[in-house]
Design a protein that fits this description.
This protein is an all-alpha fold. It has one domain. It has 14 helices and 2 strands; from the N terminus they run αβαααααααβαααααα. The longest helix has about 35 residues.
């Protein structure tokens, strides 16, 4: 039973780290796209991404300057940062290596191809010139791997643990994408007061989550902060919306040995309460997102107690 719990845990973390690799690319992509879209005279602080990822202390140990290059290097390439893209991809590979029998045979080859691509092209991600192409390539390769898993794995316990890991990590990153939008708007330095960057910022949050088309079809309104937040938090049909991820977690849990997950109900309640009366997306909204992140962290602890703790 201990061996089975170890395989379950590694499968779960394999999915979380794979999702994290893609999500880091999406998060950096929010600010990368803003560089091209925002008018001159409007500046954004890349250091917001360090704050959003709760990495201030670790970043301060390694870098004295809080500029774009250091932030991007820390998030993508710093192997002393356990949550960087390169570190996460190394953990994808390691967890896949130790659970190869639980994954489709072609998955190992695709993981190694992605690992080699990032290792060889990581400088493209750090430098601004080719960054967008690099990030897009990483996202597409992660999506290809997830497609392979979805189409070639039996929907047994192994798949349910992949679903748990993917959807927990995805929900967490959606809160951080929203936080990135809110932080960018709050901290934008505007030299020309007539320029309102909010639509550009929230439009980029949508594009970074792959949700632009679905937003237009579902919400049927122009892009605005409250509507984007409502869509990415409450929509039950868009795969990166938090409510969708929580429902997928419930489905996965129903296919595993019984376990009471009280935190799921609390997170669902948070989702319902926030959008009975949407407000301006300022500091109170960022506190709300932090509450969601804490709830997701507690949910991971409950997973560990239910299925991963040694017998």
């Amino acid at each position: 039973m201990t061996m089975l719990s170890k395989v379950a845990e590694r499968t779960y973390w394999f999915a979380r780290y794979l999702e994290r690799v893609e999500n880091i690319a999406r998060l950096v992509g929010v600010y990368e796209n803003l560089l091209f879209d925002l008018p001159r005279g409007i500046d954004i602080s890349w250091y917001n991404l360090i704050i959003i990822n709760s990495s201030r202390d670790l970043f301060a140990e390694r870098y004295k300057v809080q500029d774009e290059r250091n932030v991007v290097k820390f998030l993508l390439a710093d192997d002393t940062n356990p949550d960087s893209m390169q570190s996460s991809l190394a953990m994808v590979r390691e967890n896949a290596r130790t659970t190869r029998d639980a994954l489709p045979p072609d998955a190992w080859e695709m993981i190694n191809e992605l690992h080699l691509y990032v290792r060889e092209k990581i400088q493209d991600g750090i430098n601004r010139t080719n960054r967008r192409h690099f990030l897009d390539k990483v996202i597409k390769r992660c999506q290809q791997l997830n497609g392979l898993l979805n189409d070639n794995m039996s929907k047994d316990a192994g798949w349910q643990f992949i679903s748990l890991g993917r959807n927990l990590e995805r929900a967490d990153m959606t809160t951080r994408l929203l936080d990135a939008g809110s932080a960018a708007l709050l901290n934008t330095k505007m030299d020309h007061q007539k320029v309102d960057p909010s639509q550009l910022i929230w439009g980029n949050v949508l594009r970074s989550s792959g949700g632009s088309t679905n937003y237009r079809r579902t919400m049927r309104v122009a892009v605005s902060g409250p509507d984007v937040a409502q869509f990415l938090i409450t929509d039950l049909f868009f795969p990166r919306a938090i409510a969708f991820c929580i429902r997928e977690i419930e489905i996965a849990v129903s296919g595993l040995p019984g376990c009471e997950l009280l935190e799921v109900a609390r997170i669902k309640k948070l989702i319902e309460v926030q959008f009975e009366d949407p407000s301006q997306l300022g500091e109170s909204f960022r506190e709300y997102l932090n509450d969601l992140q804490l709830g997701l962290a507690k949910l991971h602890v409950q997973f560990s107690h239910c299925w991963f703790a040694p017998s």
